[in-house]
Amino acid sequence: MSAVSRKRINKKKMQRRILLIFLLLLAILNFDSIVRFFNPLPYHDTITFYGKVYNVDPALIAAVIKAESNFNSKAVSVRGARGLMQIMPETGLWAASQTGESAFDSEFLFDPETNIKLGTWYLSDLGKEFDGSTVLILAAYNGGRGNVKDWLAGKTLINPEASISQIPFPETRHYVKKVLLYYRLYSYLYK
C-alpha cells in the first residue's frame, strides 16, 4: 500500500472518530431531548390543569395514561374501559356525578379533557382514601378500591411504598411497577 493510500485511510478514520465523538457529545448534551422525543407528553396543558385542580402530580397522571392507553384517546380495553385513562363507564358516571357533570354519556370518555378530568379526580379521591400512598392509589386504580381494602384488612404496613411485592394480584403488582417506572421518567423529563 502506498503512503498516499495510507494517508487517505488514516484521514477517513480520523474523520469517523471526530464524527463519532461529535455525535456522542451531542447525544450526551441533548439526552433529555432525545428521551423526550421518544416519550412525548401529549395533553400536557390539560394534565397540568387538572393536576392542579385535584392536587395530583401531573407526572403521575401522565404515567397512568402512558400505562393505560399509551396516550390513545380512542383506546378500549377488553373489559370496556375507555379513553386515555381507561375509565369504566360506571366509574365515569359516578366520577361525573361527583365532579358536578350533570349530563354524562359514556362516549364522553373518549374526549381527552373529560377523561383526564374524571381520571385525575378519581386518583385524587383514591389518594384521600389511601392516605396519599402512591402504591395503594395505583393498586386501587387498577385492581379496585374494594380489593385493596380487602387486601389491607388486618395488615399493618409500615411503608406501603415498599410493599409492592405483597400485592396479591400479579396483574396489579405488574401495573404498579410499570406506572412507577413511567412516573419516575415523566418526573425527570417534565419537572
UniProtKB/TrEMBL annotation:
Ranges in coiled-coil conformation: none
**Which one Pfam family would you cite for this protein?**
SLT
Annotated Gene3D superfamilies: 1.10.530.10
Q: EC no.?
A: 4.2.2.-
Is Iron given among the entry's keywords?
no
Q: Which UniProt keywords apply?
A: Lyase
Q: Which CDD domains match?
A: LT_Slt70-like
The residue ranges of the Transglycosylase SLT domain are: 47-153
The yes or no answer to whether the keyword Membrane is present is no
Organism in which the protein naturally occurs: Pelotomaculum schinkii
Instruction: Report the protein name in the record.
Output: Soluble lytic murein transglycosylase
What's the domain of life for this entry?
Answer: Bacteria
InterPro entries named in the record: Lysozyme-like_dom_sf (IPR023346), Transglycosylase_SLT_dom_1 (IPR008258)
Tell me the GO molecular function terms.
lyase activity
